[in-house]
Amino acid sequence: MFGIAMSNLFQEKGRLLISVGGVAFSVLLIMVLQGLYQGWSNKIGEYIRTIPADYWVMQSGAEDMFHTPSVLPLEAEQEIAAIAGVGSVKPFNGRRVVVDFEDRAVGMYVVAYDATRDTGKPARVTDGKATPSPGEIIVDRVAARTNGIGLGDTLTVAGQALRVAGLSEGGDIVAFSFAFADKQDAEKIQRLPGSANFFLVQVKDGFDKSAVAQEIKDRVANVDVVTRQKFVANNTKLISDNFLPVILVLLVIGIAVGIAVIGLTIFTSTIEKTREYGVLKAIGMRNGALYVVVVEQALAAGVLGYVLGASLALVLQATLGEVVPQFVSQIQPVDIAWIFILTMGMAIVAAYLPMRRIAHIDPAEVFKA
Fold this sequence. Notes:
This protein has 14 helices and 13 strands. The protein is α+β, with helices and mostly antiparallel strands. The strands form three sheets. The protein has a six-stranded mixed beta barrel with strand order 4-5-10-7-9-8. A four-stranded antiparallel sheet has the order 3-12-1-13. The protein has a two-stranded antiparallel sheet with strand order 2-11. It is elongated, with a radius of gyration of 30 Å. The two termini are about 25 Å apart.
C-alpha cells in the first residue's frame, strides 16, 4: 500500500509541490509565532531573575521598581543583617531615566554596578568590558542595535556623559532596557546619598525562609519583603498583561490558519486523485485498502511539509535575530513535538474527509469519463 501511496503522491511534481508547500508554510507560521511567544515570555524579566536573592526588601508599597520609587536608609542594612537566619544582605540601586543619544531619547533603567560587593552586574556581557569603570556604561545589545549605539559612543545620562564600554544581553523589556554604570556614577544620577532602593537578602540554609522574611518586616520599619518570584511577576505584569496576549492571539490565529491550509491542501490533493482511486477499485481493491493509501499519502505529504517548514523556522530563529534584534524566538523541543503531532493529526483528518466520496466512487463512471 505504501508503494502505491508514494507513486500516487510523486506522480505530479507540481501538485506535490503545492501540497508540501502549503503544509510547510503552515508549520513555519505556527512555529515562528510559538517561538516568539516563548521567547518573549522568557525574555521579559530575564535580568531580574538572574539576580541572586531569596527576598527583595523595599519601601512599603513600592514593589514596582519601574513606576514607584523605593527609598530606604542605608542603616536598614545593618538591621536586616542582625536578624537570625539572614545569610547576606546587599543594597541594589537603580533609576529609570531617559538617555540622550544623537538627538534621540532612549529609555533605560540604570543600575549601580558595585564590583566590590558584586551587585548590579549584567546577566551576560557579549562585547566590550564586563565591568564599567568611572565614566563608562554597559547597555543592552538589543537597545544598542535598535538605536544605533555602538562601543565607544557617548550617552548623556541625567546630565552626565558616559562612554559605552560594553554590551549585555537579557536586559531588554520592550519599552526600555537595563544599563549598568559604575556605583559612583549611578549615585550621581540618583542624587539620593545615604540611601538604597532595595536590599537583596539571602537566607541561611536550615532556616525557615518565610519566618525570616516576616521577622525582617516586623523589625524594619516601613518595608515590604517579597520573594524573587513575586518580585519578577510584579515588575513584568504590565508588559506581560499587555504585550504577550497580542502574540498569543496571533499564535491562535496562526494555528487556525495553519490547520485550514493543511486540511485544504491535503483534501484537494486527495480529491484530485479520484480517477486513480476509481481505477484501483475497478481492479478489485477494497475500500479499507483505499483508505490506507489515502492516509499514507496524506501523512507523507504532512511529514515532508513539516520537515521543510520546521527547518525554515529554525534557520529564521538562528539568523533573523541578527538583523532584527527585537525578533526573540525560542523554539523548544516540546514545541517541535506538539507541532509535529498537530500536523500529523490534521493530515489524518484532511485525508478522512474525502474517504466518503472515495467509498462511493463507481469504477464504471471513471472508465466512462
